[in-house]
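User: I'm new to structure prediction. If I give you an amino acid sequence, what do you actually give back? Let's try with this one:
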Amino acid sequence: MNTITQAGVAPTTKGTSWIGRLPLLALPFLAIIFRYCMHDQMPAWAFMWMLSIAIFAGLKWMTWWQARERVPHASARSVAYLLAWPGMDAESFLDASRRVERPRVQVWVWAATKTFFGAALFWIVARRIPAGQSLLRGWSGLLGLIFLLHFGSFHLNALLWQVMGIDAEPIMSKPIVSKNLSEFWGSRWNLGFRQVAHEFIFRPLQRRAGPAIAGLSVFFASGLIHDLVISLPARGGYGLPTAYFLLQGFGVLFERSALAKRIGLEKEFPARIFTVVVTAAPAFWLFHPPFVHRVILPFMHAIGAL
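Assistant: Good question. You get back a string of structure tokens that encode the predicted 3D arrangement of the chain. For your 306 residues, that looks like this:
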């Protein structure tokens, strides 16, 4: 907020107008209509990507629409934000008054390593797994895709913008070093969605219903979005992604409870174990077998990974 004031632009307190919200409502709806107009001829994996892009585009537009009058920026930055950056912190990206340090060589090497590791999992390791172990094959490819995109290429994308002096923070911030579940979801995993959820769900609800309800609502919204892009294309596993994220929300609440403190969960080692168990053990709810078998594996076959 200080950088905005110093730049001579008065911050606005107005909420996002219907013009800002309309694409988020209309684009996924149109994607679903288009799929059914195709009489189910569209592959499930293509529908997944179309839905994902529709939701992503709607969120990008909504964050840009709100930030466009708060921050002084050039039109070229708006185009870059909307089309060439996966993050959702529009104000930081658009603000030309921010100063950004050039990334060190070691950071480039680490980002490239994660990218190559993801590519190796997706195109090399997965196909070496016997075809009879299809679920393991699909999970290997899925993990590779996450490393290739979210951890690797998105990190490289952030570094490219930083070289050009734009404040673009990687959307993954070393989640493996999280000290507890709250830190994992609040400041390390998928900061793009975290930014949107905090601005448009948590903050408005916190004032009305308190932080506990606001936090659970964020996890519930995340679950619904994942159900939309995972379960709907897979035509199965409905509700499992939502259950996964609600579990995360209740896990965060428990972590902060008096009972958790009495059993020593505030200590670093138990907190880390709790974080791993809560996030990893029920991961099959999030990426359930119908999704792996009907979406991920056909996608891998379609692009020659299997």
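You can read the tokens as a compact description of the fold. Here is one thing that stands out. Confidence is low (pLDDT under 50) at residues 1-14.
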